[in-house]
TrEMBL record:
InterPro entries: ATP_synth_F0_gsu_mt (IPR006808). It is found in: Mitochondrion membrane. One of its GO terms (molecular function) is proton transmembrane transporter activity. This is ATP synthase subunit. Belongs to the ATPase g subunit family. It comes from the Eukaryota. It holds the Pfam family ATP-synt_G. The keyword Hydrolase does not apply. The lineage of its organism: Eukaryota, Viridiplantae, Streptophyta, Embryophyta, Tracheophyta. It comes from Leersia perrieri.
């Protein structure tokens, strides 16, 4: 139990140190960040303008679905073509396909871990 208390005290000390650092440097960082990216800030920065931009983003993404849908089917046709002509594949193409499959599986695993709240066993402590 003493070890747990020691760890708690260490974490509290680190949290206090991080808070002090953020309080000391946070405003300067914010000012520098906003100055660097001022071309992206809409004037006036009001709630109404933010809601309008949010709607524009939503409907713009919605409008992009047909193009992405067509691109998906073109890619699927390419994969079908590769599968039909698999006799003509060389080692490089097979390696790229294997790496792609491994990457998809890895992203699936990462998504599962994130979905469980960054736990590996599925149980929360």
């Amino acid at each position: 139990m003493a070890a747990l208390g020691s760890k708690l005290a260490q974490m509290q000390a680190k949290a206090c140190e991080a808070t002090r650092y953020a309080a000391k440097h946070g405003c300067a960082y914010h000012r520098a960040l906003m100055e660097k990216n001022k071309q992206h800030v809409v004037d006036p920065p009001t709630v109404e303008r933010c809601q309008e931009l949010s709607k524009q983003l939503f409907y713009t993404r919605l409008a992009s679905i047909p193009g992405r849908y067509e691109a998906f089917w073109k890619e699927l046709d390419q994969v079908k073509n590769l599968w039909e002509n698999r006799k003509d594949l060389n080692v490089e193409h097979a390696g790229v396909a294997a790496l792609f499959g491994i990457e998809l599986y890895a992203w699936f695993c990462v998504g599962e871990i994130v979905g469980r709240g960054f736990t590996f066993t599925g149980y929360h402590v």
